[in-house]
Model the fold of this input.
Amino acid sequence: MHTVLCFGDSNTHGQVPGGLPTSRYPFPQRWGGVLARELGPSWHVIEEGLSGRTTVRDDPIEGALKNGRTYLRPCLMSHAPLDLIILMLGTNDLKARFSQPASEVAMGIGCLIHDIRELSPGPEGKQPEIMVVSPPPMRDDIKQWEQIFKGAQAKSHELALQFEIVADSLEVHFFDAGSVCSCDPRDGFHIDEVAHEALGTALAREVEAIGWK
Done:
């Protein structure tokens, strides 16, 4: 059996667009659950999605626990051995309080890749496969979140290119979620069940294409 860790934010957690912070799609509807269904019983899919999670930044309002880099290492150690790690982060780094361009958000993804390789949580202590997934761009209308994400919409359209540059330079797999799904208009930055289905199915094909012994 192969094991994949899906490490992300609220769109990995499955938060319902426009709903309460505790509103969450059931596992079969989340992209991680769709991925599990599509890959079949020879794969164990682990979801590690946290709403508000950043790549490498402590959140001065929501707390240091939202820093993805701080949690990633113990998470990898807890679930090792891992054959594949899928990273889908970046949206929360675009909050106005961080003042980060898309290129530096991508650099944060690069830091996570380096941390994974340093720990080597693959089978027999080897390097696991890594796939970077850029989140779908935000919509222009993000409702009551406009001030929190002020200026983020334009930056969100730059993430795919910047993430792909980092992924190529570090020789890891890359997938643009925006190529198969878009954010729901109910809040402008979360994905609905239709998008989860499309993303999980597309990622399953990407995972299969890697080639596994």
About this structure: Helices lie at 10-13, 31-39, 68-79, 102-119, 152-156, 159-169, 193-210. The mean pLDDT is 97. The chain is about 35% helix and 15% strand.
